[in-house]
Amino acid sequence: AFSLQGAGGAVTVLNRAEEIDLAESLGRRLGCPWGDLGRLEAQVLASDIVINTTPVGMADSPLAGRSVVPREWLRSDLTVMDIVTSPRETPLLRDAVAAGCTVVYGEAMLLWQAVAKFKLYTGIEPPVAVMREALERLQG
């Protein structure tokens, strides 16, 4: 959220109703709107990018096989990212591909977090290509 806002994006933070204080806290820090998932449809329909940072769709969880965004809200001019990495193609991303959206898989987050940490910890420019190759090998 901080990076998106820093790059000039308008951010809205949504969270489950029982955890709305988390959305409010982050929204206040960012100076952006926040709310519960009851506002999700309006936000998805008004957005260019949707990023799922919940465990919905994660394998081996009670939320496996589910999507936080119904298929009918997705459209071809939307970019959808899911930070869930297992499975690689979550129900949300499968629906997004079917709708013609641009999709960003969860391993992109893992890679770029590692790149940032490498530079922070070593002060050396990270070997991004080598890191990407190692990640791809691990994913098998």
Instruction: Indicate the overall shape.
Output: globular
Termini gap: 30 Å
Determine the mean pLDDT. Answer: 93
| Low-confidence runs of at least 5 consecutive residues | none
Q: How big is the Rg?
A: 16 Å
Reading the helices and strands in chain order gives: HEHEHEEHEHH
Which percent bin holds the helix content? 40-55%
Largest sheet: 3 strands, parallel
What structural class results from the helix and strand content? alpha/beta
- What proportion strand? 5-15%
| Number of helical elements | 6
Oligomer: single chain
Number of strands: 5
Characteristic terms for this protein:
globular; two-stranded parallel ribbon; 5 strands; 140 residues; 6 helices; alpha/beta; 42% helix; 3-stranded parallel sheet
Offer a quick outline of the entry.
The chain is an alpha/beta fold.
Topology at a glance:
Elements: H1 2-6, E1 13-15, H2 20-30, E2 34-36, H3 40-46, E3 49-52, E4 79-82, H4 91-98, E5 102-104, H5 107-122, H6 128-139
Parallel strand pairs: 1-2, 3-4, 4-5
Helix pairs in contact: 5-6
Account of the protein in words:
This protein is α/β, with parallel strands linked by helices and 140 residues long. Helices cover 42% and strands 12% of the residues. It is built from six helices and five strands, in the order H-E-H-E-H-E-E-H-E-H-H. It has helices at 2-6, 20-30, 40-46, 91-98, 107-122, 128-139, and strands at 13-15, 34-36, 49-52, 79-82, 102-104. A three-stranded parallel beta sheet has the order 3-4-5, covered by helices on one side. The protein has a two-stranded parallel sheet with strand order 1-2. Strand 4 (79-82), helix 4 and strand 5 form a beta-alpha-beta unit.
